[in-house]
Amino acid sequence: MLIAELGRVFALCFGLHLFKLVDLSEPAPAFLFIASEEEVSEGFLLDEAAAFYRRLHETGAFYPALETTLAKRMTVMNCQKLFLEALAHYVRTQCQGEARRARLERMVTRLIAEWGFENPAAHDLGRARRQVRVALEPGDKLIAHFAPRFLVGRPASFSYREVQLLVRERYPRR
Question: What domain of life does the native source organism fall in (predicted)?
Answer without folding.
Answer: Bacteria
